[in-house]
Amino acid sequence: MSQDNIFREVDEELRSDRMRAFWRRFAPYVIGAAVAVVVLVAVNEGWSWYHSNNAAQSSDELYAAFDLIEGGDLPAAQTALDKVIADGSGRYPMLAEFRKAGVLAKEGKTAEAVAAYDALSSSLDNVRLRELALVLAGNLLIDSGSLADVQSRIETIATEGNPLRNAAREALGLAQYKAGDFAAAQASFEAVVNDPLSQSTTRNRMGYYLAQLLSEGAITAPGAAENAATAIDQIVSEDAPATAAEPAAAPAATPAPAAPAEPAATNETEPALE
C-alpha cells in the first residue's frame, strides 16, 4: 500500500508539473485571447451606442427640416437637409436627399429636381429605391419633358410584377396623353384599372382619365367605355351619402326588376360620354 501511495504521489506531481509547464507556455495566448474578446465586445458596444446616438440626432435634424418645409421656409429647409446629407448617419442622409429633390421641385427648379432623382437612381444600392427615384423623376417630366424622357425612366417599371407598376403606368399614360398618343394612354390607364391590386383611389383616377378621353372623342373602344363607366360608378357609389342608397334598393323589390335595369345602365354611361 505504501508503494501505491508513493507512485500516486509521484504521478500527481508529474501531472502538476506538466500543467504548470503547459500554463507557462500558453498563458500569454489565453490571456491575450480573453483580452481581445473583452476589447471587441467593448468596441462593438461603444460603436453601437455611438451609431444609435448619431442616428437619433440625424432623425431629429431631419424632422426639424420637415417642419421647416411645412412652414414654408424652403431655404432654411435646404440648409438643414444639406447638413443631414453631409453629417447624418444610417439611412437618414438618403431620406434627406429624396426630400431635398422634392423641395427643389416645390421651388419650381424642375431640372435640378430631376437631376437629383436621376443621381439617386444610379447611386442607391436598393433596387426599389432606385425605381422610386425614377418614377418621381418621370412624374416631374410629364409637364416639363417629352414622352421619350418619361419612357426612358419608367417604361421598364410599368410591367407586371413590379410593385411600382401602377404609379409608373399612370405617369406613362399621362405623358402619352400629353404627346397625343391616345391609344397608348388608354392602354396604360386600362392596365391600372384591370390590375386587381390597384387601390380604389388609383382606379378612380383612371376612370376620370378614360372619361376625359371619351368626352374628347379621342377613344371609342367599347372596353374603354366600360372601364370608364365602371370606375365612375364606383366613385359615385363611394361618394354618395348613406341615405341615398335606400331608394336605390326599391326597384329590386318590384315584381319586374329587369325593366328599370336598362335605363339605369344608360343613365350611368351617358355622363361618362359628356
Task: Report on this structure.
The protein contains 13 helices and no strands. It has 3 domains: about 30-105; about 110-175; about 180-240, no CATH class. The N and C termini lie far apart (about 120 Å). It is an all-alpha fold. The protein is elongated and about 115 Å long.
What's the gist of this structure?
By secondary structure, this protein is mostly helical. Helices cover 81% and strands 0% of the residues.
How much of the sequence lies in strands comes to under 5%
Oligomer: single chain
State mean pLDDT (0 to 100 scale): 77
Order of helices and strands: HHHHHHHHHHHHH
Low-confidence stretches: 240-274
What is the number of beta strands? 0
Secondary structure topology:
Elements: H1 2-70, H2 74-87, H3 92-106, H4 110-123, H5 127-144, H6 147-154, H7 165-179, H8 182-193, H9 200-215, H10 222-239, H11 245-248, H12 250-253, H13 258-273
Helix pairs in contact: 1-2, 1-3, 2-3, 3-4, 4-5, 5-6, 5-7, 6-7, 7-8, 8-9, 9-10, 10-13
Sum up the structure in keywords.
3 domains; disordered C terminus; 13 helices; 274 residues; elongated; mainly alpha
